[in-house]
Amino acid sequence: MPSIILRDIKKSYGEVVAADDLDLEVENGEYLCLLGPTGAGKTTALRIIAGLTKPDSGQVFLDGRDVTDLEPEERNAVLLSQRYSLFPTMTVAENILFGPSIRKVPELDSRKTLVELLDLVRLTKRADSYPRELSGGMQQRNALARALATNPDVLLLDEPLRALDARLRIDLRHELRSLAKALGLTVIHVTHDQEEAMVMADRIAVIRNGHIVQIGTPREVFDDPVSPFVANFVGQSNFFVGNILCSRDGRMTTVEDDKGHVVFARSSEIPVDSKAVVAIKVGNTRVVKRSDAFVMGTVERTLFEGRVVHLDVNAGELGRFSVKLPASRRDQVAVGDEVGLNWDIPKASVFPYPEGGLEEELRVD
Ligand SMILES: Nc1ncnc2c1ncn2[C@@H]1O[C@H](COP(=O)(O)OP(=O)(O)OP(=O)(O)O)[C@@H](O)[C@H]1O
Ligand SMILES: [Mg+2]
Fold first, then answer.
1. Which of 13, 38, 207 to mutate to test the pocket of ligand 1 (most atoms within 8 A of CB)?
2. What is the predicted pLDDT for the residue at 38?
3. DSSP assignment of 292-324
4. Ligand nearest the Cα atom of residue 37
5. pLDDT digits (tens, 9 = 90+) for 232-285
6. pLDDT surpassing 90 at residue 25
7. CB atoms < 10 A from the CB of 332, how many?
8. Of the residues 12, 15, 16, 190, which should be mutated to test ligand 1's pocket, given the most ligand atoms within 8 Å of the CB?
9. Interval between CA 363 and ligand 1 midpoint (Å)
10. Cα–Cα dist 241/352, whole Å
C-alpha cells in the first residue's frame, strides 16, 4: 500500500489556486522528487501532507489511514521547511533534542536518539557547537537530524539543498538519498532543480498550477515528456512549430512549417494537417556536417561552461537552437560559423500545438 496518498486535493488562497485536483501516490520507502516552477504549489502540497495547511477539500492518507482531519502531531510525517531555521542560541545537540522534547518522548529515549542521530549525520564531534560555528552543509545536516528526531516514517523535504553552495549541494545529494534509504523512509523531496531530481529520485512528479502533470521514473519523464512544458522543464528543449505532413509509416513524423521547412520526430498519433510542436532536447541536438544536417544555422554565441560549451545557433526562420558541445570540441566552433544540426529522430517528441500558444505553455512563473 502506498505510504502517502493525496486524493482530489483543492486549496485556494482567494483567487490563487495552490492545489487543483491534486492527486499523488508515493510508495512505501520511495524517494520521490516533486519538481515544479516557483508558485506551482510544492510547499502547499507538503504542508497539506504534514497537516500544517488544511485543504479546502480532498483527502490525505498516510499508510492507508485517513489523516485529513488529524493534527500534525498525530501524523507520522515531518516537514523540513524551505526556510529551516536552527535555533541560534541552542547547540547542535539542543537543536536536535528540541524535536523529541516537544513530542514528550521520555528523557532516556531522547538521549539515545541523540547519540544515534549525531552519528548518522556525522556531527558527533560538533554536538556542542552553535549553528553560527557550522558550515552550511553541517547546518543542513543538523536541521535534518532535528527532523529525524521525531522518528517519522515520512520525511518531507522542502528544497533541502537550496541554501548550499554548488559543490556541497552535489555531494549531499547522494548522502541524503542513502540516509533516507538506510532508514527506510518514504520521502518527498521538493526541488526546482531538474538535475537534482534526475539524480536523486526513484520517481519524479512534475507539478504545475497545483496539479501533477506527469509522474514517472527520471528516465520516463526525461525521454517521454507528456507536454512541451515537461519537455522543457526536465532537460531543456528546442522547439519547432508546424503542421503534421505525415505520420503514416509508424516510424517517424514529418512536420512542415508554413515556410516549407521540414523536420522529423518520433512517430505520433496526431492527425495529418494538425498544428504540432516538435521538442528536441538540447542534449539530443548535435552539430554535424551539412550533408547530415536537418537544420543549418549560424553560431551567435558560445558560452564555455566547464564541461561543455553552450552554443546559441540562429537557424533563421526556424528560430534559435541551443546546443551543448563537449568542452573537448570547443576550439572547433566559433561565433559566425555556419553549422549543421541534427538529432536522434526517435528521441524527438511531438505534441499537439498547445491551446494557449507555445509561449504560454512554456511559462515558468
Ligand atoms: N499562506 C498563503 N497565503 C496566500 N497565498 C499563498 C499562501 N501559501 C501559498 N500561497 C500561494 O499559493 C501558490 C503556491 O504556493 P507554494 O508556496 O505552494 O508554491 P511553491 O511551488 O512552493 O513555490 P516556490 O518554488 O517559490 O517555493 C502561490 O501562488 C502562493 O503565492
Ligand atoms: Mg515552496
1. 13
2. 93
3. G-SEEEEEEEEEE-SSEEEEEEE-GGG-EEEEE
4. 1
5. 999 899 999 999 988 766 789 999 998 888 999 999 989 999 999 999 999 999
6. yes
7. 11
8. 16
9. 17
10. 10
Measured from the Cα of 47, ligand 1's closest atom is 18
Amino acid, single-letter form, for residue 71: E
Tell me the average pLDDT across 153-177: 86
Tell me how many degrees the CA angle 77-63-147 measures, rounded to the nearest 5: 15
Say how far apart CA 165 and CA 138 lie, in whole Å: 12
Question: Confidence class of residue 53 from pLDDT cuts 50, 70 and 90?
Answer: very high
Closest CA to 190 of 174, 175, 201, 182: 201
Task: Compute, in angstroms, the gap from residue 152 CA to the centroid of ligand 1.
Answer: 25
- Taking CA atoms only, the protein residue closest to ligand 1 atom 3 is 13
The predicted-structure confidence for 68-89, as pLDDT tens digits, reads as follows 999 998 898 999 886 767 899 9
Closest atom of ligand 1 to 46 CA is 18
Q: Cβ contacts of residue 298 below 8 Å, gap of 6+?
A: 313, 314, 336, 337, 338, 339
For residue 316, is pLDDT > 80?
A: yes
Residues 3-16: what's their mean pLDDT?
96
* pTM score, whole prediction: 0.91
What residue ranges define each of the domains in the chain, with the CATH number in brackets? Answer: 4-223 (3.40.50.300), 228-362 (no CATH)
Q: How far apart are CA 281 and CA 265, in angstroms?
A: 12
Residues within 6 Å of ligand 1 by CB: 13, 16, 18, 36, 38-44, 82, 192
CA-nearest residue, atom 5 of ligand 1: 13
pLDDT at 81: 81
Ligand 1 centroid, distance to 147 Cα (angstroms): 22
Look at residues 168, 159, 99 and name the one whose alpha carbon lies nearest to residue 138: 168
